[in-house]
Amino acid sequence: MVKVRVKYFGRLRELLGVKEEDYDVEDSTLADLLLKHIPSRHPEAANEWRKTVFVTVRDDVAMGRDGMPILKNHFILVGGRSPDLTYRLRDGDEVAILPPVGGGDDEG
Amino acid sequence: MRVKISENLDDLSGLIEEIKGVSNEVGAIIVFVGVVRGLSSEGERVLRLEYEAYEEQAAKKLENIIAELKGKYGIIDAIVEHRVGVANVGENTVYALVASKHREEGFKSIIELIERLKHEVPIWKKEVTERGSRWIEST
Questions:
Q1: Nearest CB to B137; choose among A7, A96, A100
Q2: If you average pLDDT over residues B91-97, what whole number do you get?
Q3: Residues 6+ apart with CB under 8 A from A83
Q4: Are B120 and B54 in contact (CB under 8 A)?
Q5: Which residues of A touch B94 (CB under 8 A)?
Q6: Is residue A87 a part of any domain in this protein?
Q7: Pairing between β-strand A75-78 and β-strand A94-98 as defined by DSSP bridges
Q8: Residue that wins the pLDDT comparison between B41 and A82
Q9: How far is A104 from chain B (nearest CA, A)?
Q10: How do residues A9-53 score in pLDDT, each as one tens digit?
């Protein structure tokens, strides 16, 4: 069994209504997790999820030349490192999905 | 070097004494205090900000930034404290202190430290105004 923990922050945490959750992802890449496993557990938010995390064209996730989906300003960390989406998930991985950090000038 | 991501900030005068005590070569301490402003950049009345962090990574990233500033500007030390959770208008949300031998490298460092804090460190904030709320995100 390949069990991973996924952490969500900011807008994504709000969208899915959960801070973190575990997935059993036998024989899956990071792209599989983001494109299949997470949306199928959250069908009500799946469309918004895809539009928020990925570049989409007419509701379809845009694919790069490498055949991988194109992230929209989001940053993925696995155990503190940032592998590409072809990374094959391993048992015990902690995957953090980070929305863009804002800057902003509400303070300071 | 000390970094803290927490619901509460420590007493600022204590932080000044703490960083002063790091070395007797300290000749300048530059202090930045971030305060929740009552008016948004769109001119709306702000009710509060809500902060959320990936705490382990945020602390690690800040430590790396401070280490880089030490190498780049030769500052002696830095302390950063950042709030998470709800912060109301007028409340302090960030303390950043830089200790250096001379003021010049301290001023340069504090500007870079705050810019990088806002753009590179995984801390998110939601602005809640009288008209609604939105996550502040760069595009």
A1: A100
A2: 97
A3: A30, A76
A4: no
A5: 107-108
A6: yes
A7: antiparallel
A8: A82
A9: 6
A10: 999 999 999 999 999 999 999 999 999 999 999 999 999 999 999
Instruction: Give B126's contacts in chain A (Cβ within 8 Å).
Output: 10
Indicate yes or no: CB of B123 within 8 angstroms of CB of A98: no
Residue/partner pairs of A55-59 with CB below 8 Å, 24 or more apart:
none
Which residues of chain A neighbour B49 with C-beta distances below 8 Å? 106-107
A residues 8..67 contacting B (CB < 8 A) = 9-11, 13-14
pLDDT of residue A105: 61
Give the best residue of B47, B125, B127 to mutate against chain A (max A CB count within 10 A).
Answer: B125
Q: How many domains does chain A have?
A: 1
Nearest CA in chain B to A97: B54
Is B33 in contact with B92 (CB distance < 8 Å)?
yes
Per-domain residue ranges of chain B: 2-131
Q: Is residue A55 part of a domain?
A: yes
In a domain, A43, yes or no: yes
B125 touches A at CB < 8 Å? yes
What architecture is domain B2-131?
Alpha-Beta Complex (3.90)
| Residue A78 belongs to domain spanning | 3-98
- SS3 (DSSP) at A60: strand
Q: First and final CA of chain A: distance in angstroms?
A: 48
Chain A touched by B137 (CB under 8 Å): yes
CA distance B47 to B66: 32
A106 in any annotated domain: no
Q: Which two tokens stand for residue A70?
A: 């194109």
CATH code (residue A43): 3.10.20.30
